[in-house]
## 1
Amino acid sequence: MGWSVGYDSNWKRDIGYGVPAYCDHPGCTAEIDRGLGYVCGGEPYGGEHGCGLYVCTEHSEYAGDKRDNVRLCKACRYGKHTYLATADHPDWIAHKLADESWQQWRDENPDEAAALHGAGARGGA
Ligand SMILES: [Zn+2]
Ligand SMILES: [Zn+2]
């Protein structure tokens, strides 16, 4: 299965290329995934230079040689750490609440599952 779905304990959310998501740039609703292609810093959790948030191509830039030319969100690129994690994509919430592969998680985390139900009902972000 590889690295399709994992968990980011720093931002407390699901990550991986199997997780549909919105860009974490404030107000941006570009649909991306939380795979390595979109992560700030070029590796899960952001590595040495990034924050580990996920941004679309429009809201990312390559850092210079000093920072290993990694892909960064604009906040990290310009040294302003102002981004917050955006809400999960409604498709992902629906998947977590319905898919068999998440049955065990739902059984073990009934409170979180109930909270997700509320988030889904509000239409996500
Ligand atoms: Zn960043
Ligand atoms: Zn964006």
## 2
Amino acid sequence: MSLTLYYHPLSSYCQKVLVALYENGAPFTPELVDLGNPERRAEFLKLWPVGKFPVLRDGERIVPESSIIIEHLDRHHPGPARLIPEDAERALETRLRDRFFDLYIQEPMQALVGDRLRPLESRDPFGVERAKARLRTSYDMLERDMAGRTWAMGEAFSLADCAAAPALYYADRVVPFRDSHPAIAAYFERLLQRPSFARAVEEAEPYRHLFPG
Ligand SMILES: N[C@@H](CCC(=O)N[C@@H](CS)C(=O)NCC(=O)O)C(=O)O
């Protein structure tokens, strides 16, 4: 079945899936979605009314949600890189780490970026402080966790690293960690050098000016 990825190159969750696709080597057609264009938005909402990307089309099947897309690729289009370990316990641990990056790094990062995009009178200083505190707690947890590890699950690159790379990339722009958290900084450097993520970052470059601040 042919694969189409509905995405935007600047989007952190889309980059998470791009990293998986580039690791896996599965051929796919990229379909850039401009949510600011009413026609394109309406077409996209027919696929996934929630209106969030990435969304993968695999033949007739529509697969939303970045983690589920990566699971789908691993199961139905396995490539050289298996991103979910075979071992059930390690698979569970990998999914937990994926959830950690999505819920406790991406989510507060998105709240902070979203606040910058609001008109001044609609900003939410309380929400901003709460999101910053959540990020600092997550950094402290991750700093302890990454000591002595190459990737989030140890030696094998996994789903959790796909989630980590764009989450940390943008989180560092809103609450910098490189001076305060050396183990995360070293991990992030490895992620930046990883060809799959380096490619996603390079492809986002023409849109970088759209990132606030
Ligand atoms: N849980 C979703 C989150 C996806 C998400 O938040 N995507 C953002 C871009 S990074 C989006 O579509 N934003 C547009 C909007 O909310 O209107 C996933 O893992 O795919």
